[in-house]
Design brief:
Layout (H helix, E strand, L loop, with lengths): L7 H9 L2 E6 L1 H8 L22 H6 L2 E9 L10 H18 L3 E3 L3 H9 L3 E8 L8 H9 L2 E5 L25 H13 L2 E3 L5 H10 L5 E5 L13 H9 L3 E4 L3 H4 L4 H15 L4 E3 L19 H10 L4 H16 L2
Parallel strand pairs: 1-2, 2-4, 3-4, 4-5, 5-6, 7-8, 8-9
Length: 334
């Protein structure tokens, strides 16, 4: 899909609100297989989960304003050493890309993103997926923040020093944030690092919201009110994030949305609007994160098609603009 596939009205809305996506794992592939963000790619196999979703040419074609790149470290077999190094290596890969092209710029704030877009560049933002990457040391959080990391996901698919996952190794639904997890929420806020509540169990999710004084996010998820799945969050969780001024990014994965096509994506976004208002929904694709994406959203070139589908659902341009862009910019702050 390209920008030209959408109607004139959708193209106009999309041009006025260049999209910001809260989560893509592309830098994982840059680290592993020297994936070049500057080149146009396609997935290695049709309908595969083996990456190849995001690159600069397709981001530009899809009318993107910025992409949050998730930084992944995998504590395989309980491994706890070398995880921080894996994060730094992914940031190094992005730095090399930024040095080689003016089309992408490291951004931290709303003003940074807007300035990059004004000069014809797109923003690159950073978020860590799982506090295991800190190796139990808050000094690592400070170091990552100094390199531009703007959010920290407390959990991924295994328990860590902060708490327990919604699903995966070490799952314990009855237990919430640890003492370290509570300290981490406080330290994140003092450093200007947004707390990301993707993948965490419900008890820890609500613990973090009770502690928080600044807006958290859920960078990539579905919602239970639209489709029943362990990966999805309920209405009370949505309200807890919205009441703090945060936002919730909807994934583009049919497995979690309850079906392929644009209609399920629209259904999940609409549910958030209905439950807690237009300031809460956002985009959280999970591109390049071992998912098979929605057909029309297999890569960023399909984003104008989503804008078209949102308009067709009867959603206002104001609300669509918030979903595409301004809700995330608000949470980023100045």
């Amino acid at each position: 899909m390209t920008l030209l596939a959408a109607s004139d009205e959708a193209r106009d809305v999309h041009a006025r609100y260049p999209a910001i996506d809260l989560h893509a794992d592309t830098l994982m592939w840059s680290r592993w297989v020297d994936y070049d963000l500057r080149a146009r790619h396609s997935p290695p196999l049709p309908r595969s989960a083996l990456g190849g979703h995001v690159d600069i040419p397709r981001m530009r074609e899809g009318g993107m304003g910025a992409q949050f790149f998730g930084l992944v470290s995998l504590p395989v077999l309980g491994r706890t050493r070398g995880l921080a190094r894996a994060i730094n290596e992914q940031i190094d890969a992005l730095d090399a890309t930024l040095a080689a092209t003016p089309l992408l710029a490291l951004t931290r704030t709303r003003a940074d993103v807007e300035a990059a877009n004004a000069r014809g560049a797109m923003g690159a933002l950073l978020g860590i997926e799982g506090a295991h990457a800190l190796e139990g040391d808050l000094h690592n959080l400070e170091a990552f923040a100094s390199r531009g990391v703007r959010y920290l996901g407390l959990l991924h698919f295994s328990a860590n020093d902060a708490g327990f996952p919604a699903f995966g190794k070490g799952r314990r639904d009855e237990d919430g944030l640890s003492r370290f997890g509570c300290e981490l929420v406080v330290r994140c806020e003092s450093l200007g690092v947004i707390v990301d509540l993707s993948h965490i169990n419900r008890r820890g999710f609500m613990d973090a919201c009770e502690l928080a004084h600044k807006p958290p996010i859920v960078s990539h998820t579905g919602v239970l009110g639209a489709y029943e799945h362990w990966r999805n969050i309920d209405d009370a969780q949505l309200r807890a994030v919205a009441n703090l001024g945060g936002c919730v990014g909807i994934m583009f994965c049919p497995k979690y949305l309850g079906g392929d096509g644009l209609e399920p994506v629209v259904k999940h976004l609409t549910h958030i609007v209905n439950v807690c208002g237009e300031d809460a929904p956002a985009l959280g694709s999970d591109w390049d994160g071992f998912i098979v994406p929605t057909r029309e959203l297999a890569d960023p070139t399909g984003l104008p098609q989503l804008t078209e589908a949102l308009l067709a659902s009867g959603m206002s341009e104001r609300t669509i603009g918030k979903i595409l862009r301004t809700n995330v910019l608000r949470v980023l702050g100045s």
